[in-house]
């Protein structure tokens, strides 16, 4: 803004309905020495001008009650005011603005938003030419065709010339701004295309090296960038140069990129948390050889979440420095690169992660399958347990219980073979008394005994009877206890077996043996149910024994009662006959007139 001049004798009337715009314009004019009067619309401005003629009027176009064109026309129609210069503030967005300005007699146009310096120059120009315009007043009539319409302009020649010159100046200014905008737009398009290319390249990069090389290759498409390099920080090995583009020969020498520099030291200290211009790169300064005059670069930290993983250094054209907007842009690029590097690291380890996850998933599926098979087996065992318990309630004979137990184990428990044997306490031999399923002469080949030292014996049966507890073989093919019978067992489809001792009065009474077609069948949960089942059978055997004893006792008691009844009947009959004879003797003696021989008590005994 110019220094304050001696314009205190000059009055400027401002017609502006915006209080803010009016205050700004008043402040500008008063700072340059003018006296200012402000009117909030065209009507008030006209009244103010009629009351006190101003030196110059500056009016907005769009106002309530009376707009700027109407105000200007009213001023130019007033004999006392018509020589007062009027500057209209307009957007000049339509050719009609010029025509209407000419029609109303405006002296000058100022385009919104106005340049303060240009506004003051136009005011000075109009004020300096006031006297000249008074001397050379010449009314001219001009007919103009515009947009298919005819307009007749009746204004002073100098006034028309001034208005057209101001319009031309504004047009030139607009054109200059448009060219500047075009340059900025072109620059923005280059930046956007460069950023798009970087993002597209990063989306296809799968390794750290691909990410770094793609970034630098595409970064060179951005305005001002002519070279760069990317270093990653490894906690164990330090900085590692991963990619470089267009470096000067001095930095391509062996060892030129090794060691610390200012930007790397700031990175390690945690001070490189934003993009900065490194004014004098000590690496370039210390490099031996051709550097092409380069000495500075931008240092872009690469952040992944809250962790810095490396540095991207970019050398610009000319002096190599970047403005704030460019630094902000490079910071965003750095963030994209960091994310892509993290993704690449994840991708590089993806094979291992996939293998681990696949193995875990396979193990999980296998475990679920085993669990499902286990549930199915448990349901079968529950069915066996329920069926045998129902049988225990229903039957009263040991042989029938044994037959039903074997049948239920095969049909509902899906065991391939089941048999029950009774132990002879004297001979220690086990005799099969019931069986179901596939035998095919298997039991006939085995010496079933509780003695472990007998040749051809079944070690599992002997162990179960000797130790009075279940014996499990979950893999016949590998269990040495089944070596003697393995071939025959496998031939019949036996893969695992359990021998359950049946107890009577706490002593082994026999065995319940179950063969399964799968290995590993008899786990802890299944064995709990099978032990419960054998316990129920043992309880039933105990019940059968007690019931037999009770029946025997009842039979003996009945015999004793019958014998006592017969003895009682015989004894009572003899006594009654004696009493009857005594009564008859007394009657005969009475008939003979003799006294009774037996007393009444004796006769009634």
From TrEMBL:
Segments forming a coiled coil: none
Entry keywords, A to Z: Kinase, Phosphoprotein, Transferase, Two-component regulatory system
Modification 4-aspartylphosphate, positions: 60
InterPro entries, A to Z: Bact_response_regulator (IPR050595), CheY-like_superfamily (IPR011006), GAF (IPR003018), GAF-like_dom_sf (IPR029016), Sig_transdc_resp-reg_receiver (IPR001789)
The keyword Phosphoprotein belongs to this UniProt entry's keyword annotation: yes
One term of GO molecular function: kinase activity
Membrane-spanning segments: none
Annotated GO biological process: phosphorelay signal transduction system
Gene3D superfamilies: 3.30.450.40, 3.40.50.2300
Domain Response regulatory: 11-127
Organism superkingdom: Bacteria
A Pfam family hit: Response_reg
PANTHER family: PROTEIN PILG, STRESS RESPONSE REGULATOR PROTEIN 1
Protein name in UniProt: Diguanylate cyclase/phosphodiesterase (GGDEF & EAL domains) with PAS/PAC sensor(S)
Annotated source species: Candidatus Gallionella acididurans
């Amino acid at each position: 803004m110019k220094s304050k001049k001696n314009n205190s004798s000059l009055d400027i009337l401002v017609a502006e309905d915006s209080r803010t715009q009016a205050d700004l314009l008043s402040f500008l004019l008063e700072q340059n020495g003018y006296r200012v009067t402000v009117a909030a619309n065209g009507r008030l401005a006209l009244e103010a001008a009629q009351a006190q003629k101003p030196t110059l009027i500056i009016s907005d176009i769009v106002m309530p009650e009376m707009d700027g064109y109407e105000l200007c026309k009213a001023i130019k129609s007033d004999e006392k005011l018509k020589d007062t210069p009027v500057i209209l503030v307009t957007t000049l967005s339509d050719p009609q603005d010029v025509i209407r300005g000419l029609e109303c007699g405006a002296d000058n146009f100022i385009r919104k938003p106005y340049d303060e310096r240009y506004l003051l120059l136009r005011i000075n120009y109009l004020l300096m030419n006031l006297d000249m315009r008074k001397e050379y007043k010449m009314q001219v009539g001009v007919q103009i065709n515009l947009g298919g319409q005819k307009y007749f302009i009746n204004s002073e020649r100098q006034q028309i010339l001034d208005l057209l010159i101001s319009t031309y100046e504004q047009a030139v200014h607009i054109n200059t701004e448009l060219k500047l905008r075009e340059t900025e737009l072109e620059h923005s398009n280059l930046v956007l295309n460069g950023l798009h290319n970087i993002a597209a390249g990063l989306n296809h990069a799968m390794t750290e090296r691909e990410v770094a090389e793609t970034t630098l290759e595409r970064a060179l498409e951005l305005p001002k960038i002519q070279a760069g390099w990317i270093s990653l920080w490894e906690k164990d090995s330090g900085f590692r140069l991963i990619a470089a583009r267009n470096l000067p020969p001095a930095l391509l020498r062996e060892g030129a990129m090794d060691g610390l520099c200012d930007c790397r030291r700031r990175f390690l200290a945690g001070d490189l948390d934003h993009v900065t211009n490194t004014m004098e790169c000590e690496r370039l300064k210390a490099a031996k050889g051709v550097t092409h005059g380069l000495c500075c670069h931008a240092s872009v930290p690469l952040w992944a979440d809250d962790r810095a993983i490396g540095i991207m250094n970019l050398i610009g054209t000319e002096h190599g420095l970047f403005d704030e907007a460019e630094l902000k842009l490079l910071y965003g690029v750095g963030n994209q690169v960091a994310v892509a590097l993290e993704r690449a690291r994840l991708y590089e380890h993806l094979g291992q992660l996939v293998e681990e996850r696949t193995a875990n998933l396979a193990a999980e599926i296998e475990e679920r399958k085993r669990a499902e098979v286990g549930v199915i087996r448990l349901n079968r065992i529950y069915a066996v347990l329920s069926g045998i318990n129902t049988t225990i309630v229903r039957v009263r004979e040991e042989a029938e219980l044994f037959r039903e137990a074997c049948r239920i184990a095969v049909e509902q428990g899906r065991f391939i073979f089941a048999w029950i044997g009774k132990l002879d306490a004297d001979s220690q031999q086990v005799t099969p008394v019931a069986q179901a399923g596939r035998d095919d002469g298997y039991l006939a080949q085995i010496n079933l005994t509780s003695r472990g030292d007998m040749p051809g014996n079944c070690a599992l049966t002997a162990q179960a009877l000797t130790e009075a507890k279940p014996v499990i073989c979950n893999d016949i093919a590998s269990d040495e206890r089944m070596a003697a019978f393995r071939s025959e067992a496998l031939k019949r489809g036996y893969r695992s077996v359990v021998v359950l001792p049946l107890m009577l009065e706490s002593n082994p009474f026999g065995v319940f043996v179950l063969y399964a077609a799968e290995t590993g069948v008899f786990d802890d949960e299944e064995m709990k149910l099978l032990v419960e089942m054998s316990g129920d059978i043992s309880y039933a055997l105990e019940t059968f024994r007690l019931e037999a004893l009770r029946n025997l006792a009842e039979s003996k008691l009945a015999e004793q009662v019958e014998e006592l009844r017969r003895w009682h009947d015989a004894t009572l009959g003899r006594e009654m006959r004696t009493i009857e004879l005594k009564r008859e003797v007394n009657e005969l003696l009475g008939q003979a007139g003799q006294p009774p021989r037996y007393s009444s008590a004796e006769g009634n005994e």
